[in-house]
Write a structure and sequence with these properties.
CATH superfamily of the largest domain: Formyl transferase, N-terminal domain
Mean pLDDT: 89
Oligomer: single chain
Bound molecules: glycinamide ribonucleotide
Helix content: 40-55%
Number of domains: 2
CATH topology of the largest domain: Rossmann fold
Structural class: alpha/beta
Shape: globular
Number of strands: 7
Number of helices: 11
Strand content: 5-15%
Largest sheet: 7 strands, mixed
Distance between the termini: 31 Å
Radius of gyration: 24 Å
Strand order of the largest sheet: 3-2-1-4-5-6-7
């Protein structure tokens, strides 16, 4: 019995991670599936008897009618039930993916709902690379721009290899003007993700993209965040403090360093022989595994 319950818990935890949803949202999603299943079966039975099909009707006709309701009716019913449970955005994205896989999306002309993402990065760009790879050929999300503040940074080559337009930005322009904000808007950018971008985001940019800028920080915020806490400085401080764990935090950007609402965290244990470099490597593994998926869930409307 205990084994049964612990397998159910593990299964639920895996679903939660896969869909990047909170425990309460997972509950509502599962309720939506359960209610939709029963309602579809009931409607399918009612339609069959309303049409007058009975045991004398050819079995093939009965099966075809039932299958029609189950396959097509289900897709409509699930959206209605999802709406009642407050889960319409989650299920609508799910439906759009199915339609896309069936090749129906273009003919329904709803494929123009693309989100355009700008990646801001200052360094090697390993996160930027993973994000670009993840969204290659994505039906709803395009990585449309890379913004970099450091001449010679690795991310410049990553953008050029992926044929993504690059915007180089200087410090005084970034901090004291807002023309570049308009340029970014004019390029149709809807979301910004920071992937190792080491300047504080100015108020003008935050005001132009409210709640639409995401950052990844290589520690478990609120600890080891703030001014000067970036890259190896973070890992040195974590090891010097003798922490047993470190990890990553993915959060919305507000006016303060590493401060906005945290959407996702993941941990990694620190062993006695870890150095800042070995910890950085462990953290990069976590970042590459989770950041693209969290970005996808955030943009497509999942709540966390
Ligand atoms: C990443 O570990 C990211 O979390 C960190 O910079 C690294 C960039 O690596 N960001 C910060 O420290 C922001 N405070 P990458 O260039 O290989 O993606």
């Amino acid at each position: 019995m205990l084994l049964f319950f612990s397998s159910i818990c593990i299964m639920l935890e895996n679903l939660q991670k896969k869909w990047k949803v909170s425990a309460s949202q997972l509950g509502l999603i599962l309720c939506t599936f359960a209610v939709t299943g029963s309602l579809t079966a009931y409607i399918s039975r009612s339609i069959t008897s309303w049409i007058g099909f009975d045991e004398n009707t050819l079995l093939l006709w009965r099966i075809l009618l039932r299958m029609g309701v189950l396959i097509f009716g289900y897709q409509v019913i699930i959206l209605i039930v999802a709406f009642l449970f407050g889960q319409f955005p989650f299920f609508w994205n799910y439906e759009k993916k199915i339609l896309h896989r069936m090749g129906l999306l273009k003919s329904l002309k709803i494929s123009n709902e693309k989100f355009n993402v700008a990646i801001f990065a200052s360094g090697a760009g390993s996160n930027a690379k993973k994000i670009i790879e993840h969204f290659e050929n994505h039906p709803f999300i395009d990585i449309s721009l890379v913004v970099c503040n450091k001449p010679g940074a690795g991310v410049i080559h990553i953008a050029s290899n992926a044929n993504i337009p690059l915007m180089m930005i200087e410090r005084h322009i970034f901090l004291d003007t807002d023309k570049y904000v308009q340029d970014i808007k004019n390029q149709g950018i809807t979301h910004i993700v920071l992937a190792g971008f080491l300047w504080k985001i100015p108020q003008t940019l935050i005001a132009a993209f409210p709640e639409h800028i995401l950052n990844i920080h290589p520690a478990l915020l609120p600890k080891y965040g703030g001014k000067g806490m970036y890259g190896s400085h973070v890992h040195e401080a974590v090891i010097a403090a003798g922490e047993p764990f470190s990890g990553i935090s993915i959060h919305l950007v507000d006016e303060q360093y590493d401060h906005g609402q945290t959407l996702f965290q993941a941990e990694v244990p620190i062993s006695a022989d870890d150095t800042p470099d070995s910890l950085a490597a462990k953290i990069h593994v976590l970042e590459h595994e989770h950041y693209p998926l969290v970005i996808e869930g955030w943009i497509l409307g999942s709540t966390f």
